[in-house]
Amino acid sequence: MSTQPTTSVETFPNPSPERDYTIRMTMPEFTCLCPKTGQPDFATLKLEYVPEQHCIELKSLNMRLTAEFYVRGGIYTTVVAQHQATGWKPPSEVTLP
What we know:
mainly beta
């Protein structure tokens, strides 16, 4: 098994590109180094996106990425980064009775 990061992402055709739906993924074993102290940080990453023509095609992501870092020094940290394609509008929320 390689220890080097990959530079490619596998994709597959979106089975329903004519409608918006959300794909959510949870990655519970994210590890990085704190940019200030150099100490290890551990987090769960949650990726949320609306696919266009392909699923997991980075150029097609309307993306929200949430990083929930585990406690260190008594503090939990959550970081949210979001990107929306120009002109994309989310569908109206559906409220069920």
